[in-house]
Amino acid sequence: MKNVVLVGMPGSGKSTLGVLLAEQLCYKFTDTDILITHKAQMPLQEIINGKGLDYFLKFEEEIGCQAHYDGTVIATGGSMILSDKAMQNLKHNGIVVYINVPLEEIERRVNNVDTRGIAFKKGETLADIYEKRTPLYEKYADVTVDFSTESVENTVKKIKDKVIPLIK
Fold first, then answer.
1. Cα separation, 93 vs 153, whole angstroms
2. Which residue ranges in the chain fall short of pLDDT 50?
């Protein structure tokens, strides 16, 4: 069975939606940010602060390249999209769903920028990474679902309705 790979900005709801979507599809669920923290045995922000952004992005790429699942909803970290190698691997047996949320809503939801483990360069803002990443989310997406005004339940239903014909 094909996987469902959720991509989108930090704060877009990938993990929240992913758990519920996996339940609805009778799929397994995994979150690449959790895989990173388990493997590194430290929080994302500590990896970024202690080892640097480039190290973190390479580590994240490795996790994405090593992801070989079947019948799994995969919530990716917001910066996974920066690695073409990882995204090609995830697309190999997966339907990529871009969880599209407007910048204003992302800024409202993400109020812990300094501790959340977001892959920023020094001086970058959420607006900067939004502008940089949005074309990549759109490029890799097989399906796009807006999640700014709908409820979690309605958004999961929209995703499910769009991916079921593609995963069979």
1. 26
2. none
Q: Which of 94, 83, 90 is nearest to 59 (CA)?
A: 83
Dmax over Cα atoms in the chain, in whole Å?
Answer: 44
Range list of H helices, the chain: 14-25, 32-40, 44-51, 53-65, 84-92, 103-109, 126-140, 152-167
Between the CA of residue 43 and those of 18, 34, 48, 49, 99, what are the distances in Å?
21, 9, 9, 10, 24
Residues 85, 62: Cα–Cα separation, whole Å: 9
Per residue in 60-98, pLDDT tens? Answer: 999 999 999 999 999 999 999 999 999 999 999 999 999
Q: What is the pTM of this model?
A: 0.95
